[in-house]
Amino acid sequence: MTGTPYGDRPSPSKLYRDPEHGIIMGVAAGIADYFGISRTTVRIVMVLALVFFTLPTFFGYLIAAFAVKPKPDGLYTSSEDEEFWRRTRVDPKRTVADIQQKFRTVERRIRQAEAYVTSSEFKLKRDFKEL
């Protein structure tokens, strides 16, 4: 156990570089993936930042390129897992509300099943089936 809540798996909530989809070192692609926005949008913002704030942007990019780890293979177990973590990073309050709604739905269904199983109608149908 590595001490992380994910065991040997890398944390899906961290920022990673995405060299597979990147042009230079994958920093812009990683930022786009982390926030769930278009890579083109992030690249345009980076170019504009380079034009207006050349040195800070350049050095910030270099620092990020060497400080941020590349995106590991198998980061997400499925496309649903990837979508969940992307929504969580972008809007965590909404994700919590979605999870709460799912639990409410499951709880309501369990209550309905319990009510049916403990009803006299269920017992009567069961007795007829046993005849």
Offer a quick outline of the entry.
The protein is built from 6 helices and no strands. It has helices at residues 27-35, 39-52, 54-67, 79-90, 92-117, 120-130.
Keywords:
single chain, 131 residues, mainly alpha, 2 domains, 6 helices, 0% strand, rod-shaped
Explained architecture:
The chain has 131 residues and is mostly helical. It folds into 2 domains: 11-75, no CATH class; 91-131. It is built from 6 helices and no strands. The longest helix has 26 residues, at 92-117. The protein is rod-shaped, with a radius of gyration of 24 Å.
Query: Percent range for helical residues?
Result: 55-70%
**Tally of contiguous helical segments:** 6
User: If you average the pLDDT, what whole number results?
Assistant: 80
Characterize the biggest β-sheet: none
The helix/strand order is HHHHHH
Span of the ends, CA to CA: 56 Å
- The helix/strand class is mainly alpha
* Net shape: rod-shaped
State the low-pLDDT regions, or none.
Answer: none
**Whole-angstrom Rg:** 24 Å
Number of domains: 2
Q: How much β-strand is present in the residues?
A: under 5%
Give the helix/strand layout.
Elements: H1 27-35, H2 39-52, H3 54-67, H4 79-90, H5 92-117, H6 120-130
Helix pairs in contact: 1-2, 2-3, 4-5
